[in-house]
Amino acid sequence: MSQEVSSFAQSYKTTIEIANNKASALKKSYLLYILSYITRGLGFAFFFPLLSVMFSEKFILNDAFFWFGAIVISTVVSLIFHWLALEFNYSTDLTDVTHNLRVKLGNKIKTMPLQRLNKYRTGELNSILATNVDQSVLHMGIVAGMGLEALIVPIVIVLATFFINVKMAFAMLLAFPLAVPIYKWSRGKIKVEKIENVKAHSTLEADTIEYLQGLPVLRSINQVGVNAKNLQKSIAKAREVQKKGTLGATLPMVVMITLIEFVFLMVLSLGALWIADASISIATLVALLVVLGRLSEPLANFLAIASVLDTMEIGFKHILGVLRQKDLKINEPILTPKTFDIKFNAVDFNYLDYDNKAMDNVSFHIKANSLTAIVGPSGSGKTTITKLIMRYDDPSCGNVEIGGVDIKNMTQVGLMSYISVVFQDVYLFDDTILNNIRMGKPSASDEEVQIAAQKAYCHEFITRLPHGYETTVGEIGGNLSGGEKQRISIARAILKDAPIVILDEPTSALDTQSEVAVQNALDELIQDKTVIVIAHRLSTISHANTILVMQDGTITEQGSHKELIDKKGKYYDMFQAQQRIKQWNL
Predict the structure, then answer these.
(1) Which domain does 507 fall in, by range?
(2) Which of 76, 222, 481, 485 gets the highest tally of CB atoms within 10 A of its CB?
(3) What pTM, to 2 d.p., does this model score?
(4) Which residues of the chain have pLDDT under 50?
């Protein structure tokens, strides 16, 4: 597996893009780092003339003070520039970049097509919002500064040495041609391992969240502990990748340190020869060795710094992958429907990564304030219809209208203000019952929430709970029964009071008593609304104004219950099959 190693220019460009409105502050920080390391390199270079003066046969105190003063001034100026460069990290700039980036990611997640959002597992998104942001941003100043130090200081010293002693400069240059292939080899090797490491840990995080959420089910089928195959596989993979990465990073580091030691010994040997033929003085060689010794640490750390930069870059890549997702286009002008009938006009739709059409030339018209049922086998396109009404994504062909207005001419917030949804699998947030219902209308008073709860037939069981409406429902509503969660979901929809209601078979998984309570709550919800219900039990929708029969992404039949029964087509066969099941005597 080969991976292209990004240049420092590419990494810089990406970093500036991530910094966004703080890019100028980051550029200023980088400039100050560069000035700091230039002056620091000059300070090291001044060791040569200082030691030459101090060990010369004719010692001149003023010359010694001059070069010593030059070193002190260079060091002080370098420290000042370095201190100012660190302001980006220790002021609010860095935290602002982190905060703004998470806000941008949050806004993107809210607006990107749900079809594209659903490609990410929960753990992957959590890793991007938490780990990747921290990896990318929290080190973008300091680590970049360390990388600049390892690059600039040696270059400045070598260039300055050319003005002092050409032979010494060429001796110091010997390390660079040897270091370049080691660096490229290391970057290529480490980057592959970093990508595998990030991917393995992202998968581990996703599998851990999935494991924790599904723990009750896993316990029931004895698939916990060593039997939790997916999680165990992810843990083993993360361990293997981490082990491989540690070994892979160590070898290049050892090679680089060996190279530095080799150059050190080679310069010492050449220096001894040059002293023998009086080309340089002992003082100059001592100065050269002192400077080389000081340079060994940043050069040795350079590969480690490059490794951190690779981690940052991978984090950048994942972040930008989310930020560069295209939002659904809102057409101008923004329009508001006057009525709430729904119309599909020759709609085609494909899910990502699937060749077969999920919808194929689907057209129908749902009248306002009517009840429409959608029936058909699993995978026939029932849920796809409701998703397209909520603009899960745009059709590949055709359009969807509400009240004669193309939904592309509505903002997502505007569109969803017209729609209430009651799902088969209810999601409640780990908050109080009061706040879960109030999500339907955040400005609602406590009294309005209670009225909605009464209409949804859940006020009675709520008042029996230890803390009433202030009772916390637990993660995903785990402290409540299925029927209780469903009625709270309906109370939320009643409080929202949207003109269009979508019901995804909300009673199919309930016991008889809960089903009666939920059905009564639904009767309150759907009064004077345009209602669409996805139905599996055909006996529950015989009173619908219109029934759409789906098969392989197309509408094969539509009409009232009586009309479809008289037609003796697909709907008739489905209805008769369900009636026979009811007659089974176990």
Answers:
(1) 328-418+498-586
(2) 485
(3) 0.67
(4) 1-3, 585-586
